[in-house]
């Protein structure tokens, strides 16, 4: 560390080119290269690798924390076994999803049901693996950020972190989608079902959603009826902003909706599509990058305890990875 130059050339190979090993790190980034259940375009399984490569090209200096580069953070190895299995199952999932979209012919029903069963079984194993990894690092006194992959990947991470919390915990969900569908397309752990699963498995969880602008009627009904859900719809936030209200006022309302302990889940498609063109399901509208950073700063300043975080659905091309690396850097500063 004495020889490290934060003003020098970014050295590839470690997260942000920082000289910290896992054993030395206070924060561990857990990569989960998995996008088996995505219902539109695949590719986010490659995001951890792409973000790792892009991270060494960004500068560390932050106005809010000039010594941010001293944050002891490292990224665990990308699990090759899960990546290979995910790529294999994604091919099967595409066949299955096409079968659904084409009317679910009876001739292929038995084969498709076998595919669905296999995917649900393997995804269950993935959730257990993620939970075990999270528990291990937390037992070592470290905080964790999960890096997906699609939005199904953090379920085990969230569950492990919330398991030891006696008090209510708030999930701050930045997202274009509500993700409250029950086993969407038959996938128990679909990317579109993550928050329904979180609420089902963690009765002390409250979810505060920000940026939602693409959802079905059943999800809207659940938001109205479930007192554990608070939604800041993108359309309604924009109406207030266009009528002269300040983003700082909305941020205060968002933060006040959260209990003292908070987990932050960032689906990159919560941002405007210019920042995430190759995400799994891009949607017009959304937050600007600067709005997201301001919200993080206000959340940090509020004194709430940030238990952990995830970043998911980042595309694997250079621009998406560049933005993803910068969001990850901001999340790291938020939870440290």
Question: What's a concise summary of this model?
Answer:
The protein is 41% helix and 15% strand.
Which terms would index this structure?
single chain, 336 residues, globular, alpha/beta
Strand order of the largest sheet: 2-1-3-8-7-4-5-6
In N-to-C order, the SSE pattern is: EHEHHEHEHEHEHHEHEH
- Tell me the name of the CATH class: Alpha Beta
Count helical runs.
10
- Main structural class: alpha/beta
- By CATH, the superfamily comes out as Ureohydrolase domain
- The total tally of domains equals 1
For the record, give the distance between the C-alpha atoms at the N and C termini, rounded to a whole number: 19 Å
Radius of gyration: 19 Å
Largest sheet: number of strands, sense, barrel closure: 8 strands, parallel
- CATH topology (level 3) name: Arginase, Chain A
Provide the residue-averaged pLDDT: 95
State the CATH architecture: 3-Layer(aba) Sandwich
Q: Which residues sit in consecutive blocks of at least 5 with pLDDT less than 50?
A: none
Structure notes:
The chain has 336 residues and is an alpha/beta fold. It has one domain: 3-Layer(aba) Sandwich (Arginase, Chain A), CATH 3.40.800.10. Helices cover 41% and strands 15% of the residues. It contains ten helices and eight strands. An eight-stranded parallel sheet has the order 2-1-3-8-7-4-5-6, sandwiched between helices. Helix 1 links the parallel strand 1 and strand 2. Helix 3 packs across helix 4. The longest helix has 31 residues. It is globular, with a radius of gyration of 19 Å. The protein starts with 26 loop residues before the first strand and ends with a helix. The relative contact order is 0.17.
């Amino acid at each position: 560390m004495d020889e490290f130059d934060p003003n020098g050339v970014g050295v590839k190979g470690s997260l942000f080119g920082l000289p910290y090993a896992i054993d030395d790190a206070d924060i561990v980034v857990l990569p989960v290269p998995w996008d088996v259940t995505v219902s539109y375009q695949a590719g986010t399984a490659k995001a951890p690798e792409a973000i790792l490569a892009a991270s060494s090209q960004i500068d560390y200096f932050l106005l809010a924390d000039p010594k941010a580069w001293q944050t002891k953070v490292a990224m665990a190895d990308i699990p090759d076994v899960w990546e290979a299995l995910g790529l294999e199952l994604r091919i099967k999932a595409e066949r299955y999803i096409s079968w659904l979209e084409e009317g679910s012919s009876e001739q292929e029903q038995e084969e498709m049901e076998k595919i669905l069963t296999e995917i649900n079984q393997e995804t269950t194993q993935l959730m257990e693996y993620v939970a075990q990894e999270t528990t291990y690092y937390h037992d070592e006194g470290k905080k964790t950020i999960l890096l997906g992959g699609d939005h199904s990947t953090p379920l085990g991470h969230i569950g492990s972190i919330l398991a030891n919390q006696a008090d209510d915990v708030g999930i701050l969900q930045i997202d274009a989608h509500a993700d409250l569908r029950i086993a969407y397309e038959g996938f128990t752990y679909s990317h579109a079902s993550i928050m329904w699963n979180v609420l089902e498995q963690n009765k002390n969880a409250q979810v505060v959603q920000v940026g939602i602008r693409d959802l079905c009627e059943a999800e809207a009904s659940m938001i109205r009826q479930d007192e554990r859900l608070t939604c800041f719809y993108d359309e309604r936030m924009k109406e207030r902003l266009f009528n002269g209200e300040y983003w700082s006022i909305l941020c205060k309302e968002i933060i006040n909706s959260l209990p003292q302990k908070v987990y932050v889940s960032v689906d990159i498609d919560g941002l405007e599509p210019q920042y995430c063109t190759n995400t799994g399901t891009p949607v017009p509208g959304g937050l600007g990058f600067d709005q997201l950073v301001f919200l993080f700063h206000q959340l940090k300043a509020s004194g709430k305890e940030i238990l952990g975080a995830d970043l998911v659905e980042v595309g694997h091309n250079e621009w998406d990875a560049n933005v993803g690396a910068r969001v990850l850097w901001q999340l790291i500063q938020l939870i440290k």
